[in-house]
Amino acid sequence: MALGYFVGPRPDTSLEDYLNHIDHAVTVCGIEHVGLSTDFNIRGIEWSATKENWLAPRLREFKPSYNVRWPPWIPELDKPERFRTVARGLDRRGYKVADIEKILGGNWLRYFQEVFGA
Fold this sequence. Notes:
Blueprint: H1 4-7, H2 15-29, H3 51-61, H4 82-92, H5 97-116
């Protein structure tokens, strides 16, 4: 999830915080079991979301512990090139190309092949 309030407690949650979450997931469950999804439109949230149409409904529906806040997006991850940005960040952290490919979709493909067949 690329929403800042799910990634970090501060309003200025950043790409580095997001990458820290990926590092943690890899440490906890292994590179073979980490896959990303942003759960929102390829153009991101900022282009269409307002406090009225995006924030207000979530404040009514989500538990207070979710700490929903405005703006919800991490700026670097609210653009169509978000996965390239993540790939470059993982590369800077020393991830191998094959492992970056797993995280960015390869693990999802393997999962769906195992569950639904090739």
